[in-house]
């Protein structure tokens, strides 16, 4: 059994993990390792390979603060996002610290030594790999990479053609001249429909209920003009600030004036669709804007496909599937040669890693989130969960910055451990205040949020800038500890934690 000792273990080499590695190096130097279950860098952006895969966030705000996106292309493909993540890892020297094919199964904190023992498995060796570290930094995202959400659809097994979930897209699938039914109306469906419409005979988006969709330019014309005036680096910094402000303003406007913003979105949709298109049925959700995630159509690609007839929308529930298509509740048959089940993702808390203290497991669903980056009762642990209403990386960067400040504070005051201690009687709420179906289905397996600060996972970037970047690290709810050492210089023995 191999054992490695470092200061920090980072779990995950996706967007969060590579960003975290930059901040970890600033805090502890090269004494860290990144454990990644996949064989390539990128996490989500390596997993998803369906046609048209992209992000709904613009690259200027999705990029790291320390490695800004310097291209005027704003909405880019999943491949380019993964390449960007890898280029960041190369630039920082992080690639040398990543162990691919290492699936972390458990982590136990030893109070007597103030260190985590992290256990991982590999496909190549039956013996577990053990890493001991002072800090555990979880960057696992919140998607289950093994499976997507696949609800029961009556008669689906009787369908004569291929049935494909976007999370497991076969690279050799040829849709040329095929009739395709895409079941779903979330971000994946909004992405895949116009992409498939380029080669398929026809694509039908079959949705149970509509989603809010807005057009967004795939290339930032203002950034292009600014780059010619002040240079690419300065332009990218200004564009990043601009886009963060626009995204925040749009979200706040939707929450404060939902009726007015519903009208704005409807007017924007109507301008891009035929005059006889049934907006009320197909693009008017029952909920308010941003009760669930807003979907983006780069350069209006979805609306363009619907306008030119290469795609269509059917809003109804599925009655059953026949060998030649899908029968909806109205009795209409939607003919199909291929069915794509864009029925959503499955959430997974911290990659199914079992967390324990002194051998006693701590179910994460029983913990409270502290400042949206730590868990009550679990010492020296930091995690990253990004925003649902803005670019994921904005929160990931703030968590990394706060970790650096935390390490400096501990070093300055001689602390070895920290642990958030939950107050008694605090109201417990779902961690994420978003009604998206994929979140509602699994949120009870995640840590809880508290009814008051600092036990909430905030969804306001500017507020988090104040809390995580500006305000002092010390907090009454965060207890720091010191390991009582005996003859440390000689034998390195460490006794129990004395909590201050």
Automatic annotation (TrEMBL):
Pfam families: FMO-like, NAD_binding_8. The keyword Protease does not apply. Its cofactor is FAD. SUPFAM superfamilies: FAD/NAD(P)-binding domain. The keyword Oxidoreductase applies. Keywords: FAD, Flavoprotein, Monooxygenase, Oxidoreductase. Belongs to the FAD-binding monooxygenase family. This is Flavoprotein CzcO associated with the cation diffusion facilitator CzcD. The lineage of its organism: Bacteria, Bacillati, Actinomycetota, Actinomycetes, Mycobacteriales.
